[in-house]
Write a structure and sequence with these properties.
The complex is a heterodimer. Chain A is an alpha/beta fold. Helices cover about 40% and strands about 20% of the residues of chain A. In chain A, helix 1 links the parallel strand 3 and strand 4. By secondary structure, chain B is an alpha/beta fold. Helix content of chain B is about 35%, strand content about 20%. The chains are: A alpha/beta, B alpha/beta. Chains A and B meet through helix 7, strand 8 and helix 9 of A and helix 7, strand 8 and helix 9 of B.
Chain lengths: ~270, ~270
Amino acid sequence: MTPKQLCIETTRVDGRFVRLRRFRPDTARCSFPTLPLLLLHGLGCSSDAWTPALRALARHGCARRVVAPDMPGYGHSPGPRRALGMTELADWATRLLDALEIERAHLAGNSMGCQVALALARRHPERVGGMVLTGPTTGARLVPIWRYVFGLVVDGLHEPIVYNGTLFRMYLEMGLRRYLATAKKMLADDPFAQITAVQAPCLILRGAMDGVVPERAARQLAESLPRGAFSEVTGKAHALQFNHPTAFVQNALGFLAGTEAAEEAR
Amino acid sequence: MGRNRTHAEWQNVDGREVRVLVVRPRGNTPPRTTLDRPLLLLHGLAGGADVWTRTLDCMGAQTLALPVFAPDLPGCGGSPGPRAAMDVNALADWSARLLDALDVPCAHVAAQSLGCQVALALARRHPARVGGMTLVGPTTGRHLESGGRYALGMLASFREPLSYKWLALRLARQMGLRRYVATVAQMLHDDPLAEIQAVRAPCLILRGALDPIIPETVARELAELLPCGAFLPVAHAAHIVPWSQSGVFCRISLAFLAGASPVSSNPQPLANR
């Protein structure tokens, strides 16, 4: 791993600072026109949740630019006082892409970030290449609220201690008020509502021990998407990109290479 | 947990028996990874279906919805072949006839080393039979790699695991020196870049970062010349990625094939409440 390939930067979106983690590949390796990859974290998390994945991307000789922002109100990025909903976060992500001068990107999400990614693909299809959704939450339509709460507790037992520690710190950075308000908006969002508008190819990844997202909901999402695929990783829990970053990276790089090759074929 | 077992089957192609290692889907276990077409695995020079056993185990653990086939090419492993060594195009046509025998109209192909040249010839000569392709450690042949460079690479391939070296010795003995030399000549004579524009299938080129046989420039050049090519390096692996890093190979290949399929499943919108 070359440490200088990974860095933390700031930019401005809507007049507010945004903290970003970036991965820049060796320019010599980038002989192919590859789309950048935007990583969207989950509820109460920040770009810290992606650090193992970013290191794994560097180890695997990833040839595309990767950006992992703290969404407004999460981690080190200040946000407006009110909590933002899924569509607002999706629109914010497109403005972030504008600020970074990225016309079109692949998206990878974890947990609630997947609902943001789906909203982005639905509302701005021209900005999205392919999507890799890890442990996607699906609002309150398939999974009741008590199931999410219960799942979060059970999932914590399967996650490594390092992740639980990181998660606790990230929760503190966000604050309880914003967490609850965002959770309410996340549950109100229904990714199945206009699912056929999501024309981007989409890989649903799920850790087999994921306590938060039931297998039934993840499979249903993959089957409902016009171009959905499903893959399960044995023995890993909800935060797959953190506790098995190599599996996440291999699935993501393989799938995104496939979507690009298929695009060239058409 | 459902794990599908690899077993050997015999098929008849051109009046000769062919040994095929197969992982078939199991009844009602839901697949753990999407695969929309059967998968055909083509081994390399002096190889055999046994080179894929670890890959097949990984595929079995994913309880795929469709079968995965790894044949012994004629004259290799347990499959008898004609006396004369077959050239790359003949092996490609033979693979198409094998797909007929297996009753598979269109398959994804994953191939390794010489198998990559066969897969490219198959995609060029029978485009309707090939969905997507994952090629590991491609490839020798005119304009890509000389015989001298190939021989040097073979001498330097001490990085493969010991378990593979034993297997390779057994498979090379099964093939015999005469057939080995004749096939090397055919392999180096073949030109994978000729009519490369005819290969319309999405194609992922994988190369072990420590591969002494195929230089990175060759693998990249092939990926760039392919109309729908992509390139990914595999860290800590030499030439035989499907043996030394079978889990990595399975994950990347299955993800690539899922991404490359234009439509992977029938959308089933949820009824509105």
